[in-house]
Amino acid sequence: MGFLAFSQNTNHHKTKKTNNVATVVHKNPKDLFDPAPFAFSHATTNEVDGKYIFISGQSGGEGLEHHLSKDFRTQVKFSLKNLETVLADYRLGVNDVLKITVLMVDHDQEKLKIWTEEMHKVWKNNKFPASTLIPVPRLALDDMMIEVDAVAFIKK
């Protein structure tokens, strides 16, 4: 007869206190590698009543004209800035994000390094959302190098 064992390595942290912010729980099982240096958590959830916000993929387009720089780092910065803009419209911040999905054109280790560095600049507390990176051959628009979608949580 076998049994199942679950790690209790749970990092509880309360996000910045506002009227709409939930308690986000980050789980990084001790039997798995520490994902923080790579700018993600193995899993996240919330512990209060509320609703999920599903945010469409945000590109690295700049301004209302959606200018796409030829520089990958610039597109990464603007994809995260655009994500923060959508979150702010709900009076939320990056610490309310439970899950992100990153679509990256022509993924390589240098691009992953840039992504990780920029994530650390935005998630200053190192309490990262769960994350999936998917290498893709191209995205919706010519010259688009990255797209980031997210699931956030807003407290009732």
Summarize the structure.
The protein has 156 residues and is α+β, with helices and mostly antiparallel strands. 21% of the residues lie in helices and 32% in strands. The chain has a domain at 57-156: 2-Layer Sandwich (60s Ribosomal Protein L30, Chain: A).
Question: What would the keywords be for this entry?
Answer:
disordered N terminus, 60s Ribosomal Protein L30, Chain: A, 4-stranded mixed beta sheet, alpha+beta, 32% strand, 156 residues, deaminase activity, RidA family protein, 21% helix, globular, YjgF/YER057c/UK114, RutC-like_sf, 2 helices
Descriptive report:
The chain is α+β, with helices and mostly antiparallel strands. It has a domain at 57-156: 60s Ribosomal Protein L30, Chain: A. Helices cover 21% and strands 32% of the residues. The chain has two helices and seven strands, in the order E-E-E-E-H-E-H-E-E. The strands form two sheets. The chain has a four-stranded mixed β-sheet with strand order 4-7-5-6. A three-stranded antiparallel β-sheet has the order 1-2-3, with no helix packed on it. A hairpin with an 8-residue loop joins strand 1 and strand 2. Helix 1 runs parallel beside helix 2. The longest helix is centred in the middle third of the chain and has 18 residues, at 72-89. The radius of gyration is 16 Å and the shape is globular. Residues 1-18 have low confidence and may be disordered. One of its GO terms (cellular component) is cytosol. This is RidA family protein.
